[in-house]
Design brief:
Elements (H helix, E strand, L loop, with lengths): L1 E2 H16 L3 H8 L3 H8 L8 H10 L4 H5 L9 E2 L1
Parallel strand pairs: 1-2
Helix pairs in contact: 2-4
Length: 80
C-alpha cells in the first residue's frame, strides 16, 4: 500500500518517463515551481493540494481525471 503522497510521486515519475520530459519542463508547462515538484517527488510535502495536482495534470496535457486514472490511486492501493 502506498500513501497518497507516494502514489502522486510515482504517477509523476511514470508520466515524466512516458512523455520523455524532465521535471523542469513539467514545472515550466504546469506553472508549479520546480522546488514544489522536487518536494513532491521526494515526498517531503505533508499534504498535496488538489489545485497543485490539477496544475501538474495540465502540465502533462491531461485532465485531473486522466491523471488520477491509475491503479496507484485505487482506494485498495492507498493508505489513507
Amino acid at each position: 500500500m502506498n500513501s497518497v503522497n507516494h502514489a502522486l510521486a510515482l504517477r509523476i515519475k511514470e508520466l515524466l518517463d512516458k512523455k520523455h520530459i524532465t521535471r523542469y519542463q513539467l514545472a515550466m508547462e504546469s506553472g508549479v515551481p520546480h522546488s514544489t515538484l522536487k518536494n513532491i517527488m521526494h515526498e517531503t510535502v505533508k499534504d498535496n493540494l488538489l489545485s497543485t495536482t490539477i496544475l501538474i495534470a495540465n502540465g502533462f496535457g491531461m485532465t485531473v481525471s486522466e491523471f488520477l486514472d491509475s491503479p496507484l490511486f485505487h482506494e485498495e492501493n492507498l493508505k489513507i
